[in-house]
Amino acid sequence: MPMTFTEAEKERFHEQDLKRIKNFRPIDDTFMRAIFRENLPLAQHVLRVVTGLSDLFLTEEKTQADMNRVTGARSICLDVYGKDTSGKRFDLEVQKASAGTHPKRARYHSSVFDIENLDVKQDFDELPETYIIFITENDVYQGGYPFYLFERTDTRDGSLFGDEEHILYINGAYRGDDELGHLMHDFCCSNPDDMYNEDMADSSRYFKESEKGVSEMCTIMEDLRQESIEIGREKGMEEGMEKGMEKGMKKGMKKGEESALLRTLKNLLRNNPAMSAEQAMNMMGIPSKEQEKLMELIK
Q1: CB 14 within 8 A of CB 81
Q2: For residues 203 and 42, what is the distance between their CA atoms, to the nearest angstrom?
């Protein structure tokens, strides 16, 4: 059930959202998904620049593309998915935080891509050429290079393995006077008037300045707010249930221990009629605090 807010709270959230929209940049996850949605020309331009494939022509482009073919395996949701006329597949991920750029994440994305793109009875050589691309706000490998390209090679002579899998990390901090430098400038720019690329500027301007676009962004942010509240609520319920179960188990274990002590004490007194309950409990090493409680139970 969605969380309800007062009119004053709604107004406050709306004002906050408008300020956030004004400061949004294409490298910000929420805004990036909006400006790339159903925007094949922009996705094509970005992929051409970051891959160096100037003859790349996209035939398909999706944002928030779910990849979950294998039941029980962890699914992934791609920021931008693309397919070109030659059959190549592209996964474009925008990451502000370095925590989302671990090499094993790239490895997993690539493996899921392979599973999604090979059907039953297809030969392995029918696997398409793939590009897993991370655009990061900072230079995560700290080498000062515009980009980092990773491909499997023979460790003896450096020759390519030839599996047509490419993993790219694009340095979002790069500001060279070339297409890639201009593109990274645009990704980190909040003012559409200062952008080099017209497609990115026009899309950013639509969501920042037009009444319809701003309304769409506000709806997206409200949905995200409700989603965050729901996730927090579910997490709170899970933690509450976990704590409740833990408390119940401790209580049950304690009660079970008391029952066991009581049975042992009664057996000891039954077999030793001359022994007092206090003597028996001392022999058993029961603390004085517990002895009072057990004394009440054996009466």
Answers
A1: no
A2: 9
pTM: 0.72
CB neighbours (10 Å) of residue 74?
Answer: 9
Q: Which residues pair with 150 in a beta bridge?
A: 167
Sign of the CA dihedral running 88, 91, 92, 95:
negative
> DSSP string covering 173-199, please?
T---SSHHHHHHHHHT-S-GGG-S-HH
Mutual angle of helices 211-271 and 29-36, in 10-degree steps = 130
pLDDT tens per residue across span 27-65: 998 899 899 999 999 999 999 999 999 999 999 999 988
- Cα separation, 83 vs 91, whole angstroms: 9
Which among 78, 193, 195, 192 is positioned nearest to 131, based on CA atoms?
Answer: 78
C-alpha 115: how far from chain center: 20
